[in-house]
Amino acid sequence: PVLTKNKFIVNKLRFWSRMRTMALSVLLLGAIVASSSAKLSLGTLTEFGHKPVELSAIGEALLAELSPTVHAANRTLLVTDTTSFHMFATNRTEPCHYHPGETLQRVLHGGGQFYVPYSHAVPQAVGDSFFIPRGLAHSFDGQLHGPSLVLVRWTPPYHDPYVIPTTGCIFD
What we know:
It is a single chain. The protein has 2 helices and 12 strands. By secondary structure, it is of the alpha+beta class. It has a 5-stranded antiparallel β-sheet. Strands 8-7-10 form a 3-stranded antiparallel β-sheet. It has a two-stranded antiparallel sheet with strand order 1-2. A hairpin with a 7-residue loop joins strand 1 and strand 2. The two termini are 29 Å apart.
């Protein structure tokens, strides 16, 4: 009986997750159509002791680099002794990979979903953040609602190799 109840709860959570994904898709599609000709307004990135980085122009430049043959573009925004900040534009699904440090990602424009090894896809709308502990497999699909822009914080800072291919992501 407990196992049956747990299966019921898991199935119910999956159902509501899918419903949330569909609702977000409809809302984001409307937002993209409404704002497709508008300039981006992404604010600034400010790190204590550093000059603020204006994000809108960088985001527009990155989106302009995308094409049918260019599926990702990025810029390093700020690097400290312990952390690096990057902006990525993408219109693709990344291969499953992991990083040797912690990742904090925030969706600035567009939206998508994370593929992870522990559940079905995790939807990400504008303003959503996703924390990925060191060494855990993941993949971001940034093409669901048009191209996406994400702000990424890596701790420790980026170094080669930082994106390490792996398996385990559930692509559903």
